[in-house]
């Protein structure tokens, strides 16, 4: 790859973000630890009855993962804006939307992939029936990038303001709801032996739409944020 | 046809790289600076002077395309430009140098080269040695002093192919030798046909005998 070409730029940025995440491994572990703690506390609070746990397992794991992603979202662009790297990205020859897309990909790998890996463990701890397990992983594989993309738009929109955490959480709530409904619907349907393809397909459709539009929206919002 | 050829010869000698035409910037309808008019030619270095708050940094950000001017226009190579068309021709070094503290100088430069491409014949390690950071290539930037961080950012200028340098207070945090280094880099950049705009709020031992001066009034 020649330096400065589009693939080289994307690879350089992806590598940079993954290296930075690796150098601060403790921060990657935080969301996972959070998810493990929350999921572990449910049986203690509700009682260890297997039927009850199996009923709530899918929902608990989904909500836990969503909240864990929310926790990590705030830092998506902050570091780059504060240390001036965002200006470097904006002036680069590549479209900002593409570079932002790469950043979101890196963020998803760092924040969500570990959660997808531990989710089956948490689900089996909560006695989720085995046939529903692949469906849970599939919905998470679609729902987590969708959430990262939607969240990235809001992070970019609030990037200009200090203390944007509260605002971000409030704005993200309505966007999370449909994702959680479809994801939980698919897992519940699989648990009851019903067809679960439709809600998963909806998630997939949402993800495709967000993949195309979210980076563009993020780039526009970041330009506005830097324009002050 | 003959006229075109003549025009091209002149252009090759000192074509206008960056031009500002009656450039104004407003913040909440209050003028920050302007109107500013200047043309920066190849091989030319200009110093933007002004007191604190006179809009030097803002002018730089308008020139990069990151801020939209209130009125007037910025031309690059004679054509109006925006962030979408600037394509790495302009590089901006501001108060925040855009270095990742958890990466080493070499890694930081490698990322920049990946994004912008490498200047022909440029080498990351050679550039780092040139700014006096030989031996610090793999040190985490976090452990470097403010002046050394500045030097990493200067090394980055050396390896990028950008023709226009916009340097906001490049002399800050640098010792006497560092100031001489900035001047040396600027002179070399100009000799290669590049152009640079430099802001400074005070008297500095600036490169060359009589640099172009653009004054901003608060």
Task: Walk me through the structure.
The complex is a heterodimer of chains A (228) and B (218). In chain A, helix 3 (50-73) runs antiparallel to helix 9 (165-191), helix 6 (96-111) packs across helix 8 and helix 7 (113-125) packs across helix 8 (133-157). Chain A has helices at 6-23, 25-46, 50-73, 78-82, 85-91, 96-111, 113-125, 133-157, 165-191, 197-226. Chain A has 228 residues and is an all-alpha fold. Chain A is built from ten helices and no strands. With 218 residues, chain B is an alpha/beta fold. In chain B, 33% of the residues lie in helices and 26% in strands. Chain B has helices at residues 2-14, 56-64, 105-116, 124-130, 146-159, 176-191, and strands at residues 16-27, 30-41, 45-49, 71-76, 79-80, 90-93, 164-168, 195-200, 212-215. In chain B, helix 3 (105-116) packs parallel to helix 5. Chain B is globular, with a radius of gyration of 18 Å. The model of chain B is unreliable at 1-12 (pLDDT under 50). Chains A and B meet through helix 1 and helix 5 of A and strand 6 and helix 3 of B.
Summarize it.
The complex is a heterodimer of chains A (228) and B (218). Chain A is mainly alpha-helical.
End-to-end Cα distance of chain B: 47 Å
SS summary, helix count of chain A: 10
Q: Order of SSEs of chain B, N→C?
A: HEEEHEEEHHHEHEE
Mean pLDDT of chain B: 82
Low-confidence runs of chain B = 1-12
Shape of chain A: elongated
CATH level-3 fold name of chain B: Rossmann fold
Largest interface, C-beta closer than 8 angstroms, per-chain residues:
A-B, 34 and 34 residues
Largest sheet of chain A: none
Q: Based on the structure given, which CATH architecture of chain B is correct? A: 3-Layer(aba) Sandwich
What is the beta-strand fraction of chain A?
Answer: under 5%
Give the overall form of chain B: globular
Q: What is the average per-residue confidence, as pLDDT of chain A, rounded to a whole number?
A: 91
Number of domains of chain B: 1
């Amino acid at each position: 790859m020649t330096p400065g070409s589009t693939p080289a730029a994307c690879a350089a940025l992806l590598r940079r973000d993954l290296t930075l995440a690796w150098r601060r491994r403790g921060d990657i572990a935080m969301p996972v630890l959070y998810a493990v703690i929350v999921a572990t506390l449910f049986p203690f609070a509700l009682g260890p009855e297997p039927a009850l746990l199996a009923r709530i397992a899918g929902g608990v794991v989904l909500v836990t993962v969503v909240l864990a992603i929310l926790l990590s979202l705030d830092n998506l662009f902050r570091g780059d804006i504060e240390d001036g790297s965002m200006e470097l990205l904006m002036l680069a020859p590549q479209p900002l939307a593409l570079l932002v897309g790469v950043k979101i990909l890196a963020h998803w790998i760092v924040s969500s992939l570990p959660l997808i890996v531990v989710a089956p463990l948490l689900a089996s701890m909560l006695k989720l029936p085995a046939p529903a397990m692949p469906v849970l992983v599939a919905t998470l594989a679609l729902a987590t990038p969708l959430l990262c993309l939607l969240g990235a738009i809001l992070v970019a929109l609030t990037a200009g303001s200090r203390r944007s955490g509260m605002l971000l959480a409030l704005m993200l709530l309505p966007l999370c709801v449909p994702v959680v409904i479809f994801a939980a619907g698919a897992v519940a349907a699989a648990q009851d032996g019903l067809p679960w393809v439709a809600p998963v397909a909806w998630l997939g459709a949402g993800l495709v739409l967000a993949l195309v539009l979210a980076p563009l929206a993020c780039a526009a919002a970041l330009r506005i944020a830097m324009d002050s | 046809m003959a006229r075109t050829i003549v025009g091209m010869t002149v252009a090759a000698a000192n074509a206008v790289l960056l031009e500002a035409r009656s450039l104004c910037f407003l913040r909440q309808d209050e003028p920050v600076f302007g109107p500013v008019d200047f043309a920066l030619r190849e091989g030319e270095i200009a110093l933007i002077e002004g007191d604190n708050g006179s809009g030097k940094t803002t002018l730089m950000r308008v020139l990069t395309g990151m801020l939209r001017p209130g009125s007037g226009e910025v031309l690059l190579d004679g054509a109006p430009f925006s962030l979408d068309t600037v394509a790495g021709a302009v590089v901006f070094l501001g108060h925040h140098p855009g270095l990742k503290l958890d990466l080493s100088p070499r890694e930081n430069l490698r990322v920049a080269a990946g994004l912008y491409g490498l200047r022909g014949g440029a080498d990351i390690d050679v550039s780092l040695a040139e700014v006096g950071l030989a031996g610090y290539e793999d040190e985490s930037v976090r452990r470097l002093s403010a002046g050394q961080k500045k030097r990493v950012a200067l090394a980055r200028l050396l390896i990028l192919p950008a023709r226009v340098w916009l340097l906001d207070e490049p002399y800050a945090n640098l010792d006497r030798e560092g100031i001489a280094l900035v001047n040396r880099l600027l002179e070399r950049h100009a000799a290669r046909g590049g152009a640079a705009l430099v802001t400074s709020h005070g008297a500095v031992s600036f490169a060359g005998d009589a640099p172009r001066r653009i004054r901003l009034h608060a």
